[in-house]
Amino acid sequence: MAEAILGDHDQYSCSICLDLLNDPVTIPCGHSYCTSCINECWNTTDNKGTYKCPQCRHAFNSKPPLNRNTILAEIMEQLRLRTKLHESEAAQSLAGPGEIACDFCAGEVFKAVKSCLECRASYCETHVHPHYNVPALKKHKLVKATVMPICSKHDKLLEVYCRTDEVCVCMHCLMDDHKGHDTVPSTIERGEKQTKLTDTQTKVKQTIHAKEKELQKMKMDITSHSDSAKEAVKNSTRVFTELAKFIEKRSNDVIEKIKAQEKADLDQGAKLQEKLEGEITELKKREGVLETLLQTDDNIHFLQNYESVSSSSGSNGFPSCSFKPCCSYTDVSKLACELKERLVTVFKQEINETFKKDIYSDESLVVDFPGSWKGILSEMEPVTDDDECGSPAHNCFKVGNRVSIRPSVKEPKHGWGSITHNSIGVIKKIQGESLIVDFPEQIEWTGVLSEMELVSSDVSEPLSLSPGSRVRVKPTISTPAQGWGSVTKHSIGVVVGKCYWPVRLC
Measured between alpha carbons, how far is 197 from 193 in angstroms, rounded to an integer? Predict the structure, then answer.
């Protein structure tokens, strides 16, 4: 109902303030006013016992009641809301700084939405309608609102491209400064350059994809390196905890050094990662510029900006970088084990001198099946390549095999890391054609089976159960001294280290 009668604003104006009624009230004569306006009028006037209507001058002997006009108040609210909405829409459509304005607007100039290449003018939503309805104007070329490309010399539309001077020209220029030059319609040149620019965009996308893969690999390398650092901390803690309390401080020192080195390496990795992410961001920005130019309808705008965005494909602008930690934590664990064995030997001699009745009856081994498992040396037997494959030369890879890189392999698929052709490691895990090998120079090195060869044991020499040797529980042992755990008689493990168990005879 309110919408049906909202028309002339004047009929809803207060005759006192001349503005839209605010909190309207109606007096007995039927006229309506703002509550504050009628109160102020009657309070400031010398009424002499009578109150008059400001419009009809009808007099009342006493101050009449002011009854709020609910329906009129609702109409006022609707009118105010509609007025604000129209003002908001108009403000949003007005052409702002740097925006293309409609050439046909009078008074308030609205933002143009289309430009006509034939009329050489830009139109707002209202003024562009004739180009959709008038038959003669329907044939005109409409593009997204843009600055008209006009020849500064002849005041004509730029529609030809001069390949000789690499500039856009008008038809009059062909008979003047560019006479005899190699010229083509802008649409043809646009098509050829768009093909080249599309190729450039493809290269940029390929570069982005390669950089993202490089970033993903770097994240994995950083995570793996962090895990390696944490494992080194764990191993060092385990080794030093087994020693006497007086070396506990040294254990903490080593752990702190590992963590400090880890932090330094991770800081380096974070900087490299941030750099790589920045390169990807820049490439994506460049791709966005290319995409915007490729999507433009304005041939002249395309051609004028082609050189600036196609000068470099972006493929060679950023050199590749990789995460290269300052050090490997393998040496830390190795040194800790060697220190433990030296200390154990010293402790054994001192304890023998101090406690005459305490002797060490046997050595024990720490074996990875995988998973640390302890067993008595006398309960174990070595496993050779002949035991598993029938012949040392037979290419039969098993967990625990000692392997090296084939001499014919110049560059392993996953890189050398810290190893060389002379490095000999032990297979820790096999997954399809890939395998994980622990080398003295680098643990958990990843390679492929076709790049590896078995390192045979020399049967002419007695087999010693040293770290790296493959072993299993002897068939004659029914129950190992330390229990089976998850190990069976068919399990084959790798010796990680040795230790000694004291047995008190008294």
Answer: 6
